[in-house]
Each structure stands twice: as structure tokens, then as C-alpha cells.
Amino acid sequence: MSEMIRDLPFRSRAEIDAVQERNFAEMLDLCFERHPYFRRVFRERGLSRRDISGLVDIHKLPIIAKQDYMVEPENFRLETSELPEEMRVTWDVMHTTGTSSGTPTPFYSTTYDFYNILTTNRRALEIRGVLPTDIVANLCPLTVHPYGAYHRTIAAANAMKIPVVSPLPGKPSEYFHWSAGIDEVVDTILRSRTTILWGVASYVRRVVMHAETRGEDLSFVRLVFVTGEAVTEEFRADIVRRLGAMGAADPKVSVSYAATEMQVGTVECRPGSGYHNPAPDEFFFEIVDPETHEPLPDGERGMAVMTHLNRRGTVLLRYALGDLTVLSHEQCPHCGAWTDRFVEMPSRADDLVKVKGMLINPSVLTETLVAMPAVAEYQIVIDRSDPDDKLSMDKLTVRIAPARGGEGLEVGVAEAVKAAIGVTPDVEMVPINAIYDPDKSLKSKRLIDLRK
Q1: What pLDDT score does 354 carry?
Q2: Residue 375: which of 410, 346, 349 has the closest Cα?
Q3: Disulfide engineering: 38 pairs with which of 31, 51, 248, 396, CB 3.0-4.6 Å?
Q4: In Å, what is the CA distance from 383 to each residue of 105, 223, 330, 395?
Q5: Is the fold of 1-348 the same as that of 353-449?
Q6: What is 353-449's CATH topology?
């Protein structure tokens, strides 16, 4: 077992490669010996340990789909008998999103894994420019099933030795009695003078909007970390503009791309810099053709695939994250890190939707609507013109909650949407909480397709 290199993302590419090869070899040894799922799959495919000399041969391993893992999650846990105690003890269990049955999938971390999770999350904060004087507002909700965003935000702050306050927004259960409405969340931020706001993108925006409506002073906020949803540059600019109006000097919005199976996010060192892998000793990323699964070189867009390099709980090799993106191993021109980066925000292959025979990218609609200051909230609804007739024409409706003084938006919104995507929508004006009530849900639903 190799020693942890604290600043590995900033070491030379050759040194990072060497660590990845070392860790991959050890991880593969453990999977051949102690991993129920991969031991079975390797046997079925006639693969022996000698067939895999290093990462150059990783393409010989099969791509694992999320469904493979969700069907039998217990078989993705290493058998840890006779390993050191830290590798045997289950520290915690997070949960990834469920199937159509709604059952979340457990992701197990041992004590050994959690120690490394602390390291990777501290590195992510360092890449993002967090200072020892910062204070974090953890705006992620408490939920019935433990999940990474809430718990790892706290872990990251702990590893950085900085304060973190969790207002506990939302109401996950009738048995939970300490939930905070949006007013209490804003009050907590003001009382604690938190310099970092961290949470799901749409919820963080509503908190900022609510503070602005109340006329609060948020001059102490300098960083906003958002995750869990795709974020456009217009969204980023909207947050910066609102914080600036409340006194914040040059606030930055940092976006991350994360998954439960990572327990940390790939992060920006500055806006638009790409999503840096803070743990190249823990994760090896590939880009493959989504149809053939053939490896693609840097600079080509394809499906992101992740391999764990140093875990003892749940272990995944060549796991399809399900998103399309572009990978780079070049040195970051902004922070100088040599770790790999996704240089394009990962997006789902099925993000495009067809309306009236035209393929539409919902993010284009999002950019258009967020760029309109008179629009406070929005929602896009696609349905049939006659819901009872599956052969009737598509109907696009944009539901709008106007900002103060934004009445009479219907014509302007319809024209802006038509110019952006070539389809004229119906525009429906509704109260802001009819679109998204932050006291009932921590993530907005921007697109609803009722045709399915």
C-alpha cells in the first residue's frame, strides 16, 4: 500500500500516472481475490490476472452499467476478512438514486475509505480556493436515506478544519422535528456570517433570491458551491448579480460534477476552468464511445467511465457514469494542476427532447429564461394538445413566476423562446411556489414531459 501524497493533483503527470498504475494493480489483485461480482464476471469471460498488465489493458475489462450494480449491490463489496481492521469496519453507508421501484442503492465505505474521503474532499476545497478563515453553510437537506452531498460537505469542512453550519432545510419525515424553512435558513446564514454557500443549485438560488427580497446584507459571502443539477453560465451570472446587489465583492460560483459512487466532486479551480479530479489516486476516468465502448482520446466527446483505484467497501471497475463529456490530461492553465479534468460539463445522453418534430436542448431554454431579470422562476412543460389523444400535436408550455415589477411578461417570454428554439410556447403566469417550493423540495423540476 503506497503512501498518500497530499498534493498529488499538482504533482507532475508522470508521478500521477505512476501512482495510478500502482493503485490499480493492488485494486485489481483484491478484485480477483475478494470481489464477488468481478470474480464471477472475470471467470465467465475467461480473464486471468495475468491478462491485465496495467491501465493500458483496462479496456479488456467489461463496462459496468448502473443497473448491474443496483441489481446486486452486496456483491460489489469486497470480502475483507483478514485485512487490517480499518479495512474491515463499515464506517457509513450512502445511497445512490433508485430504480423505478424507488429503492435507493447502498454504497458502503469502510473506515479506510472514509479516511481517504476526508483527503479527497480537502483537496477539492483547496482546488476551489477555500481559506482557513472560511465558514461553510451546508444547504443540503437531511434525508431518510443518507446521501453524499449532505454528509461529505460536513466531512470536507472538517478535513479543512473550518466551521460548518447546517440549517437542515426541508422536511424529510414526520419524525424529524428540526427542519428549517427558507426564512430560518437565511437567518442562519446571517447569524453565522457564512462565507461559502453550498448546496443544490436551484435551492441555493432560491435562498439567495429570498435574501435579496428581504433586503439583506450578504457582503460576507465570497464563494457559492453548487451541485446536483446542470448549471448554465446565465445561472452563474444570475447568482453573482444578486449577491453583488447585496454587497458581496466579486463572489464566485463554483460548479462541481459528482456522483454517490465518488463521494467527492470533480471541481472548478475558477469558473470555466473544467472539473478537476481531486483524487487521481482514487479514481481513473476514461471516455468511451457510448455505443461501442471503444476508448476515445482526449478532446473527443463520449461517455464518462470511472474505475475505483483504492477502496475497500463498495468497489466499481469501469463503471459507466451515464454522462457525456470531454476529458483532458493537459495541465490546467489557471491553477497549474496536472490532474485530469472534464473540460465540458457532463450531460446525459438523453437530455435532448423532441417537440413538434424538432430536437430541443432544454439547457438552451434555461439559458434564455435565466437571462431575463424579470423571470424569478420558470418551468417547462411538454404535453399533447389533447392529453387523451396520443396522436395529437405536441404542446410546449412555459410556466413563469415574475419577479417584482415583471408583470406582463407573456409576450416577451414567448418571443424569446421562439427565437431560441424555433417553437412558440404557451406562457402561463403562476405564483413562485407553484413552480418550486423550497420548503417542500430541495431540487426544482425544470422540465416536465407529460407525453411519457
Answers
A1: 73
A2: 410
A3: 31
A4: 32, 39, 45, 5
A5: no
A6: GMP Synthetase; Chain A, domain 3 (3.30.300)
> Angle at CA 253, nearest 5°, toward 251 and 257?
160
* Cβ atoms 286, 255 nearer than 8 A: no
Q: What does the domain layout of the chain look like in residue ranges?
A: 1-348, 353-449
Q: Where are the alpha helices (DSSP H) in 403-445?
A: 410-421, 432-435
- CA gap 232, 345 in Å, rounded: 9
Rounded mean pLDDT for each run of 10 residues along the chain, 452 residues in total: 86 98 98 98 97 97 95 97 98 76 84 98 98 98 88 97 95 88 96 98 94 98 92 91 97 95 96 96 97 95 97 98 95 98 82 70 82 88 82 84 79 88 88 84 80 76
| DSSP code, position 331 | P
3-state secondary structure of 127: helix
Long-range contacts of range 33-38, CB-CB < 8 Å, 24 or more positions apart? 34/78, 34/79, 34/80, 35/76, 35/78, 35/79, 35/315, 36/74, 36/75, 36/76, 36/77, 36/79, 37/68, 37/72, 37/75, 37/76, 38/315, 38/317
Q: Are 197 and 207 in contact (CB under 8 A)?
A: yes
Fold of the domain spanning 1-348: Rossmann fold (3.40.50)
Cα–Cα distance between 411 and 417 in angstroms, integer? 10
Pairing of strands 394-402, 341-342: unpaired
Beta-carbon contacts of residue 16 (< 8 Å; ≥ 6 apart): 8, 9, 280, 281, 338, 339
